[in-house]
Amino acid sequence: MRITISGPPGSGKSTVCEMLSARLGIECVISGTLFREMAEEQGLNLEEFGKLAQLQPRFDRLLDERMVRTAKEKKDIILEGRLTAHMLSRNGIIATKIFLDAEIDIRAKRIAGREGIDVREARRRILEREECEASRYRDFYGIDLSDKSLYDLVIDTTNLSPEQVVDIIISHLEA
User: Fold this and answer.
1) Is residue 51 pLDDT above 90, yes or no?
2) Which of 8, 96, 144, 152 has the fewest CB neighbours in a 10 Å radius?
3) Are 100 and 93 in contact (CB under 8 A)?
4) Alpha helices in 27-118 (DSSP H)
5) CA dihedral defined by 9, 18, 67, 175, rounded to 10 degrees?
6) Over the Cα atoms of the chain, what is R_g?
7) Are 19 and 166 in contact (CB under 8 A)?
8) What is the largest CA-CA distance in the chain?
9) Cα–Cα–Cα angle for 124, 127, 129, nearest 5°?
């Protein structure tokens, strides 16, 4: 089974993806990891690379092409990424599409804890990144990130543990 997990920064995508992968016994691919690797290859931090990607669509396209290729090659895969559900749909690849979300203050706390930074700084980075990504995806692909109609399941992770989120997803898959 193919599963996509999307959502904004700090919503729990990567954690849930890894936990779901372990529970289902199938591989997961995390786009943020690939994007960070691409940033390092360019000698840039994530914010700098995001700005470069805004000017040069080739970086987003390379990432998207890799995710689509992976989905075509593997029937059992979990793909985590902001655009993965859109890219698979556009390429006629069937998948269960899941969107995770959480309140901005909770997402900022999660990121601050993970990255060892101040919550206000995490919030600023999140908002800057979301604005950059929303602009890029709208301009490059005509995708409105605020439109959740593509997704089979939308989960607010604000007050849920990652384990609870995984349980909800598995229940959805079994239904």
Assistant:
1) no
2) 144
3) no
4) 31-41, 46-55, 58-73, 84-90, 104-115
5) -100
6) 15
7) yes
8) 46
9) 105
**More confident of the two residues 100 and 133:** 100
CATH number, domain 2-170? 3.40.50.300
Place of tokens 């786009």: 31
Which amino acid makes up residue 25?
A: G
Q: Which of 108, 97, 114 is nearest to 155 (CA)?
A: 97
Locate 129 and state its tokens: 């990144």
Answer whether residue 153 shows pLDDT above 90: yes
Q: Could you count the other beta carbons within 10 Å of the beta carbon of residue 121? A: 13
> What would the mean pLDDT of 29-35 be, rounded to a whole number?
84
CB 112 within 8 A of CB 20: no
pTM: 0.87
What pLDDT does residue 39 have?
Answer: 84
* Cβ atoms of 26 and 78 closer than 8 Å: yes
